[in-house]
Amino acid sequence: MSIQLLSISHKTAPTQVRGRFAFDDEQKMMILGKLISQKEISEAVILSTCNRTELYCSGDEYNVIFSKMQKILLEAAGAENIPQMTDYLLRFQGKRAVHHLFRVTAGLDSVVIGEDQILGQVKQAYYFSKENGFTKSTFNSLFRLSITAAKKVKTDTVISKTSVSTAGLALKKALECHETPYNKNIMIIGASGKIGSIVLKDALDIEGLNIFVTVRDKLPHELHNKSYEYHVIPYEERYEWLDKMDIVISATSSPHYTITKEHFVKCRKTQKMRVFFDLAVPMDIDREIAMEEDTFYYSMEDMQELAQRNNEAKLDDVPKAEAILQKYEEQFLKDTLFGSSLDTIKAFEEKAEKELQKKSAGEIVKQFFYKVKENSGADEFAQFMEIVKKISD
Q1: How many whole angstroms separate alpha carbon 70 and alpha carbon 76?
Q2: In whole angstroms, what is the distance from residue 47 CA to residue 42 CA?
Q3: What's the rounded Cα separation, in Å, for the pair 196 and 211?
Q4: Is 50 labeled as catalytic in the residue annotation?
Q5: DSSP strands (E only) in the chain
Q6: How confident is the model over 180-222, as pLDDT tens digits?
Q7: Phi and psi dihedrals of 390, rounded to 5?
Q8: Do the beta carbons of residue 149 and residue 105 sit within 8 Å?
């Protein structure tokens, strides 16, 4: 059994391209169903965030699997006929796929190193597949261990202790554009979503901000009791309030712009500095808005530079995090090998029982070591003897 991974992320593709691969739950079900219907594929998980979309599959005949994974992914994104779209895709197999997942789950492959959001997103992706019958023993073990390893990294290193999420980093940058946050009006569009709710929680901790949220649906349950700390306005009335805003952060899953340049120009009556931060994929805010005077616009692509400065303080602890992940990766690989070797172990056990009827235990042990020596290379035999020594001590 082999593990295959197909990935498109902030490292390989711009926001406009990644936007094609931002799938909702209905699309994920369709993709996973098509993958599992292939006879070569036995398990599948899809991870889809604003910064990456990744397909994980297990099965045999990896060349065939990669071809089918790519076809299904591009068709779902409506990109099967777009030239050079495959240039944005990365392919990993076996140990490299396992290593990539562990790094992603721990936040080491994120725009903001150690960011907290990705762990929850990986857990959600895994449970989504598991609950719908798309995983079996291999992926159940793989994803559980990657989640456990990520938690260990967060506990034992400073990488997550100094973590700032993408949403939090955007809010910090937006506030830096103004000399002080006091009496500044901020509108958060999409506060009921994952990223928008993080922005809202962070904003609630900043004294002096006047917070306005627009939502089409209900706010997250955990924010209900804080409703007195911010104003809720109907999404349809956002332009009526826009002129009063100093900062606008939008993070929805809408296929349409939440703010357009044309509407902004029409509703603007006051000339003052305004900062727009677009945290959506596909984009929420018309980037042409940056052409207006005293108006600043930032998108997910601008997060690269912002995150680089935030990451510098964490880089010294990355080797420690990698060492933690390696232990869990090796545990998974050994467990998988052991599970796939049960028939071999059973056959060896039966042969040993037959030999015990003819020879003493000592003779059988010596003959076993002799056969290992004859059927292995010098390095392999040296490693084997080191293991025997550890067991014997």
Answers
A1: 10
A2: 17
A3: 13
A4: yes
A5: 2-9, 41-48, 52-59, 90-93, 184-189, 209-215, 231-234, 247-250, 274-278, 295-298
A6: 666 789 999 988 887 888 888 878 877 778 899 987 766 555 5
A7: -60, -40
A8: yes
Pairing assessment for the beta strands 209-215 and 231-234 based on DSSP bridges: parallel
Please state the length of the chain. Answer: 393
Contact of 237 with 189, CB cutoff 8 Å: no
Per-residue pLDDT band for 370 (boundaries 50, 70, 90) equals: confident
Instruction: Match 């692509």 to its residue by tokens.
Output: 301
- Give 37: exposed, middle or buried? Use CB within 10 Å, 0-12, 13-18, 19+: exposed
Q: Which is catalytic among the residues 50, 57, 177, 267?
A: 50
Burial of 112 (0-12, 13-18, 19+ CB in 10 A): buried
> Could you tell me the two tokens for 240?
């009526």
Domains of the chain, each with CATH number or no CATH: 2-160 (3.30.460.30), 166-302 (3.40.50.720)
Minimal CA–CA distance to 146: which of 383, 386, 328?
Answer: 328
Beta-bridge partner residues of 8: 53
CB of 355 closer than 8 Å to CB of 364: yes
Per the structure block, which two tokens stand in for 31? 């993709």
Specify the residue for token string 């926001």: 15
